């Protein structure tokens, strides 16, 4: 007598496993230990570059040296801003390059604190220069983080955030023809933290070009708010002071605008099918 095997229903887990199996791993032949060594070397070279930059900076007053460090809160950003503002006119390009490299360093290694550099940029530089600086640093740093994730981040995301990465992979499959607009939408809205997007993108197969371009465009609206707040840095008491109903409305409008091409394309597709 033959037995009939029960039909196996597909589950979200199956979809997740399929989404991962469809993602090519270009570093499959590279062991985790080797990937870790490479990332450590890149990190060391980056620190050495920042150290050389520090040595090129003009001699500071003794009481100012304690403030020349990565800002971890708004008070530290205020003190750093006052120090850099004192030297900005005479050493403009040194200050600009310093902010540029430190911002990219934070983005590349997914280190918190870039929001304070965005506010600081608004305090130190003209508005449009600060906006261009932040957008370029975000795109370059995110792209470098993208490459590092190809080396090591894939293993980290798959081990510690498998469900969240798989859910984004499923959502991404629905927008595969509109990846640029989807990345812009993710950058404008706070649904996923930027560091997680940077590390997860190569895991689920996001191409680099729409990822980098979408980052450059998508970080502009929230950076607009942070830079505008930086112009009144001395009056801020917390990063939440940068937000208002006006800024929230602006971000909502930008998020909606980024989805208009997707909605129109879907509407035309439904009409002709």
UniProtKB/TrEMBL annotation:
GO CC annotations on file: endoplasmic reticulum membrane
Topology of this chain in the membrane: Multi-pass membrane protein
InterPro entries with a match to the protein in the record: TM41A/B (IPR045014), VTT_dom (IPR032816)
Stretches with biased composition (Polar residues): 17-27
Subcellular location: Membrane
Keyword Lipid biosynthesis in record: no
Annotated keywords: Membrane, Transmembrane, Transmembrane helix
Full protein name: VTT domain-containing protein
Lineage: Eukaryota, Metazoa, Ecdysozoa, Arthropoda, Hexapoda
